[in-house]
Fold this sequence. Notes:
The chain is mostly helical. It contains 17 helices and no strands.
Amino acid sequence: MTGATVYLLLGLSLLLATVLPHATRRIALSPPMVLVGVGMAFGFLPLVDEVSLDPEEHRELITHVTEFTVLVSLMGVGLAIDRALEARSWRSWRSWSPVWRLLLVTMPLTIGGVLLLGWWVAGLAPAVALLLGAVLAPTDPVLASDVQVGEPMTEDVDRPEGEDPDGTEEDDDIRFSLTAEAGLNDGLAFPFVHLALLLLAGGFGLSETAEWVGWYVAGKIAVGVAVGGAIGWLLGRQAFHARADTLRLAEVGEPLLALAALLASYGAAELIGGYGFLAVFVCAMRLRASQRDHSYQRAMHGLVERLERLMTLLVLLVLGMAMTQGLLDHLDWRGIVVALALVLVVRPVAGYVALAVLPRGEQHDGGLDRGEKLAVSFFGVRGVGSLFYLGYATSHEHVPDEPWLWSTVAFTIIVSVLLHGVTATPAMARIDARRGREPATA
């Protein structure tokens, strides 16, 4: 493939990615669906045959590209969430009730459900089945824009009628719940990935169990939250409240602070052993809390959103090309059953159980009615994060059945992209219409 051809294809793809969000806003067709289809079309070109797209040959490259894509998305969703989380306010914590339920109940149940499917249906070793569950359990902040909150509401934007100016999104608990879940569970799936790797390494006993609970579950999560919160607070003070006018980046309007915050929080957390994904999301939320209604928040979010769009374009095009170049060669009926069961049964049931048992009242912030519970349970989009976790795991340990895992994970993502992409727009429009409001644009 010549350099000129690459530039032409990338230019056309970037133009498509720029137009798609606006062209598909009110129809049952999502930009990820189109981008994967374009990638598949590129894959049939004879010039692509000379490029190897075997994931086993590019584990580290896949890991780093998907890692950065998820990081950019986490910063974006952290800046976009309008609902505050005040550490000393019990009311604030309770308004996040759906998120805590999705993280503490739905995600473990989903991991367990996929583990059983992998062991019982696919015949995988327990450690490999656990890895598959950990890889597929997190919902994705990258491909779920159709069911997530949009841009941050700041002082330069007219708020919808009836919305509380203190940052609480009235009557939009669906988008808030799915956005916050996607922002947090990418970091919280890591303990189960590590558990699978420890089991694959062998010799997992009582001491290793204590280490996993004490460090991989509690310690690394605490470090990630602390580092992200500290860096977000420091950068927020510098951007909005620095004594010197020249250091107040919010007044200058330089949005690169968002990228600096992303890199600094992730690097610092990883250097001292914490979960970097979690640190980035917490950093973004803390940065947003520094001065929630300032227009600078939208400037930072706009920069991150454009970078996310570019990275998503790259990942989805390559994923589509790889599908026509052998990525699905190892897919069999077992992988199809696992993928369909996860998207159609395991996640919806686990989500509904978490939200329906001892529910928070509908009249309160964070309370969902039956239709909203069904929507939140169903729209658990799988995507780029799953590719990262599988790339990370296979780069650190020999994983049996690796080719089958790549095919199954890729197929699951495609099923999610198609199913959720087709249903998101009409479902959310119907819910918005029932509330008597204009459909939100993500």
